[in-house]
């Protein structure tokens, strides 16, 4: 089953990379990041409008202030946006802004929110709760699909275990199991899974090898100054290096990256235009 987000199908024969900042912080930060990840091969943007944070004093996102920035960046790049909603009231508020709703790990059990999203036509990215059984995750998706919205993408983002060396533990088992038993596309969020930027590429390659349909990766112009989750965000340079290696990993499994029409045209020019050779 493939789910359409903008010009891109997730769950088809190609591997989809979603990338962008944890939080949209400013017009400059968002447009620079969007252009960089697109140039490296990402085809869908991620960016937090509202952020659920453990500390009430932490940055909570720009909220509606980000709407105009998003519309401009989407128009400029031709990319769709996935962003987390944290409350039922945000479903309607963001309907004309986002191309897919994200349900974060903390809201996987928010059944009122899931039921409301079941009434929508827009795709939903459902993250697994950090302490949820796989069966609970799949049953949570049914609150959406039973409401009539079949456009659900599952996202494994790591679970809490006894291990403390990394932020969470990526459950590769869950990727393979959900692919086999749900019939829904399954992607991996390596950034939250490991929480350490230097380890994100290796986790990404493992996800691709396990049969995931794509990744959602956090990227920031200067992770040391990020207002949220800077420790797990890749720089533009490191994201580009990861994408180059990811293509080699995918080739071993006879798969390739999903591409935007503009990216395909650019790739064609790089190969056949003698001025660029």
Question: Could you explain how this protein is built, in words?
Answer:
This protein is an alpha/beta fold. The protein has one domain (16-271): TIM Barrel (Alpha-Beta Barrel). Helices cover 37% and strands 14% of the residues. It is built from ten helices and ten strands. The protein has helices at residues 27-40, 67-77, 89-93, 111-117, 134-145, 172-182, 190-194, 200-209, 236-251, 261-272; strands spanning 3-5, 8-10, 16-20, 44-46, 80-84, 100-103, 124-127, 152-156, 186-188, 214-218. It has an eight-stranded parallel barrel, surrounded by four helices. A two-stranded antiparallel ribbon has the order 1-2. It is globular and about 40 Å long.
How many helices?
A: 10
Number of strands: 10
Largest sheet: 8 strands, parallel, barrel
CATH topology: TIM Barrel
Quick one: CATH class?
Alpha Beta
Output the radius of gyration.
Answer: 18 Å
Helix percent band? 25-40%
Strand order of the largest sheet: 3-4-5-6-7-8-9-10
Q: Would you list the SSEs in sequence order as H and E?
A: EEEHEHEHEHEHEHEHHEHH
CATH architecture level-2 label:
Alpha-Beta Barrel
Number of domains: 1
Low-confidence stretches: 268-277
Describe what is shown at a glance:
By secondary structure, the chain is an alpha/beta fold. 37% of the residues lie in helices and 14% in strands.
Describe the secondary structure blueprint for this structure.
Blueprint: E1 3-5, E2 8-10, E3 16-20, H1 27-40, E4 44-46, H2 67-77, E5 80-84, H3 89-93, E6 100-103, H4 111-117, E7 124-127, H5 134-145, E8 152-156, H6 172-182, E9 186-188, H7 190-194, H8 200-209, E10 214-218, H9 236-251, H10 261-272
Parallel strand pairs: 3-4, 3-10, 4-5, 5-6, 6-7, 7-8, 8-9, 9-10
Antiparallel strand pairs: 1-2
Helix pairs in contact: 1-2, 1-9, 4-5, 8-9
């Amino acid at each position: 089953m493939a789910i359409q987000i903008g010009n891109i199908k997730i769950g088809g024969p190609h591997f989809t990379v979603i990338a962008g900042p944890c939080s949209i912080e400013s017009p400059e930060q968002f447009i620079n990041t969007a252009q960089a990840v697109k140039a490296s091969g990402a085809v869908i943007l991620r960016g937090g409008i509202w952020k659920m944070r453990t500390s009430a004093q932490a940055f909570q996102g720009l909220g509606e202030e980000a709407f105009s920035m998003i519309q401009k960046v989407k128009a400029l790049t031709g990319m769709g946006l996935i962003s987390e909603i944290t409350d039922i009231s945000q479903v309607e508020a963001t309907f004309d802004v986002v191309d897919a709703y994200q349900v974060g790990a903390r809201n996987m059990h928010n059944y009122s929110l899931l039921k409301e999203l079941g009434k929508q036509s827009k795709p939903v990215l459902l993250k697994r709760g950090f302490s949820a059984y796989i069966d609970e995750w799949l049953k949570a998706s049914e609150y959406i699909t039973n409401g009539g919205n079949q456009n659900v993408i599952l996202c494994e983002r790591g679970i809490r275990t006894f291990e403390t060396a990394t932020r969470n533990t990526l459950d590769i088992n869950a990727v393979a199991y959900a692919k086999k038993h749900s019939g829904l596309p399954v992607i991996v969020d390596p950034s939250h899974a490991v929480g350490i930027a230097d380890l994100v590429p290796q986790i990404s390659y493992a996800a691709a090898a396990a049969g995931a349909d794509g990744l959602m990766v956090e990227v920031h112009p200067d992770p040391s100054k990020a207002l949220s989750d800077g420790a797990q965000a890749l720089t533009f340079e490191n994201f580009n290096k990861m994408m180059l290696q990811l293509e080699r990993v995918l080739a071993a499994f006879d798969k390739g990256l999903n591409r935007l029409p503009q990216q395909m045209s650019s790739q064609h020019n790089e190969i056949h235009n003698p001025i660029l050779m």
